[in-house]
Amino acid sequence: MVFEGRVEDVYWGELYKLIESGRVPELVIEVKTGLKYLEWEQSAYVVEQVREYIGLLRPKNMAVVSLKDIDSSLKMEFKAMGVRVFENIVDEDVQKEFKNYVMRILST
Amino acid sequence: MSLDYFYRCFKSKVDVYLNSLLKPTCEGFAMKVSLSFDDCFISLASTQYLDEGLLKRVLNGVFNYVTGMLEQYKLCSDVNQFTSYLYKWSKGLPRSQKLYKYFKERIESVTLTEYSVLHPKTSLRQTPPILNSLEALRGCLDCSDTSEPYFIKSIGSEYEVIQEIGGTRGTDYIYVYDNDYFINIKHLPTSNLISKEELGRGRIRETYRISKEVMNGKVLLSIRFTNKGYIHSRVCLVSNDIIKCCYCNPLRDDDELALKIAARFKPISDEYDIVRWYLDITPKLTKEIFNVITKSGAKGIFPLGHAMRLSESLHRPGLSLLTSMILDTAEGRKRSIYTKLSHILELDIIAKIIDALEGISLTEYWWVEFTTNRPLTIIKSRVTGREYTIFYQSSILPHILPGFIGGVQSI
User: Fold this and answer.
1) Within a domain: A1
2) Partner residue opposite B342 with nearest CB, options A33, A39, A57
3) Which pTM was predicted?
C-alpha cells in the first residue's frame, strides 16, 4: 500500500481511521502466488477480498499481481472492477510493464 | 577468492539442488546453474582481476561440469534444451549471460558425439552425488554431555518418545533417521501413540512407544522452538539403553547444512511440488529485494517480532526450508512454505515499486512487523521528487469488528 507523502505509525487495526479522514492510498496491491493450495488463493475468495479492500481503502489505484497465470474469467472480473492485473510477474516483460504502471500512476 | 574457491562455491550450490529429494528438472537445473554462477562469479570478480584467459578457464570449467551433470542425470533432452532454459533464467543477470553466450558458442561448435565424451574431461572435482546427511550431523555427536533428554526415556523393552507439535513456537519435533530419510516419530511404522494432550495455542503433546529393537542404533533429531520461535536442535544416538544427545548448533548456523538436512526429510504427500517452487523462485526474489534495499540507501531489512520465519526466508533459506519441513503433516509443510513464498513475493513487489520510483529510503532500515502498522519505509523518488510511505501487511480494521469477512484484515 503506497501513500503519497509521509504517514507516521498508525495504530494496529486503525488504518480505516486514516482513510475516513480523507487520506487514501495512491496504490494498493494484492499479491498472490497463483498456487491454489489454500483458501485465500481461490478465485471467489480473491475477488471478495479485493472488493472489500476497494470498499475499505478507497485506493486511487488497485492492482493484483500474481506469480503465476490468472484464470481469464478472474481477469475479466478484475477488469470490470477497475483492477489492473499483472500475472506471471517473474517474466521480464511483465516486470517492465508493472514498473511503467507504477511510474505512471505515482507521478501524476 | 581463488578460481578453486569459485568452483567449490558454484559446485556446492548446484550439488544441493541435484542432491535434494526433489526430482531435478532441466529448467530447475538451468535456473540453479544461472543463479549459482551469478552469485559465485561476482565474488570472484570482486577479489581478482579477470583477464580474458582466466575468464575462459572459468567458463570452460563450468561448461564441462554442467555438461557432465546433464549426461549423468539425463535432465534435458539435449544441450540445446538446457541452453534455452539457461537463456530464460540468465535474463537480467549480466554475469550469467556471459555463461549463456559461452554455452551457445560451445554448443554450436561441438557435435553431439563430442558432447557424449565431454563428461570425463570435467575439471571440477567429483563428489558422490548422494549426500549422506547423517554424516553431516555426526560431528555434533562428539559432545561430552550425555544427560538423558526429557523427550526420550527407556521403559522396559520400549522407548517412550514425547514430541510437542503445532506450529513453530513452543514446540519440539522429533525425527528419526531411517533408510536415508528423516521421518517424524509419528510416521514410523512401528510407533504406537499412547497419549495426546492439549497444550493450548493449538499445540499438542504426543507420547509414543517404540520397541528398542527398532530404535537401537538410530539417530534422532529434535528441533525445539522456543516460545519466541528461536531454534534449538539436538542430535541423539540411541544404543542399548544409552541415549546420547548433543546440541547441534551447526544446523542453526550453517545454512548449507540446514538445506541438506531439509532435503532429507521424507515427503509425506505432494509437498515437494511447492518446495520446488520455493527453491526455484525465492533466491531470485530475495536477491532483487536486497539489491533494491542497497540501491535505496537503507542499511537492511528488519523483520521484527512475529516475523521470525520471514527473517529466515530472507537471510537463511536453508534453515527456512528446514523449519517448514520439520512440521509433521504435508498440509502444515505446504502452508508454511506457501506463507514464506507469499511474504517474499510481497516484499519483492514492494522492492519493484521502490525500484521503479528510484526511491531513496528515508528510513535507516525497512521494517517488517506483522503486529503494528509501522510503515515498511518512507522513500523519496529520484524521478518524481515526491515522498511516499509504503506499508506492508498493514491492518485496516480492529479484529473484533463484526460482520467483516474472515481473514481480510491485513494487506
Assistant:
1) no
2) A33
3) 0.71
B183: CB partners within 8 A, 6+ apart: B175, B176, B177, B266
CB neighbour list of residue B216: distance below 8 Å, 6 or more residues apart: B238, B239, B240
User: Is A103–B284 a contact, with Cβ atoms under 8 angstroms apart?
Assistant: no
Q: What is the ipTM of this complex?
A: 0.94
Are residues B151 and B169 part of one domain?
yes
Contact indicator for A64, A32 with CB cutoff of 8 Å: yes
Of B92, B356, B405, the CB nearest to A102: B356
The predicted-structure confidence for B80-102, as pLDDT tens digits, reads as follows: 889 888 988 887 777 888 888 88
**Angle of helix B308-315 relative to helix B330-356, nearest 10 degrees?**
70
Q: Is residue B14 part of a domain?
A: yes
pLDDT (mean) for A8-13? 72
Tell me, yes or no, whether B110 and B227 share the same domain: no
Query: In terms of domains, do B79 and B115 share one?
Result: yes
Range of the domain at A73: 15-106
Domain boundary among B255, B272, B292: B255
**Residue span of the structural domain in which B151 resides:** 134-255
- The residue of chain A nearest to residue B408, with distances taken between CA atoms, is A49
CA B112 to chain centre: 36
Judge whether A54 lies within some domain. yes
Residue ranges of B 336-355 with Cβ closer than 8 A to chain A: 338, 341-342, 345-346, 349, 352-353, 355
pLDDT digits (tens, 9 = 90+) for B146-174: 666 889 988 999 999 999 999 999 999 99
Q: Which of A24, A40, A42 is nearest to B396 (CA)?
A: A24
Within an 8 Å CB–CB cutoff, is residue B378 touching chain A? Answer: yes
Please name the member of B345, B392, B394 whose beta carbon is closest to the beta carbon of A67.
B345
User: Across the interface, do B373 and A14 touch by the CB < 8 Å criterion?
Assistant: yes
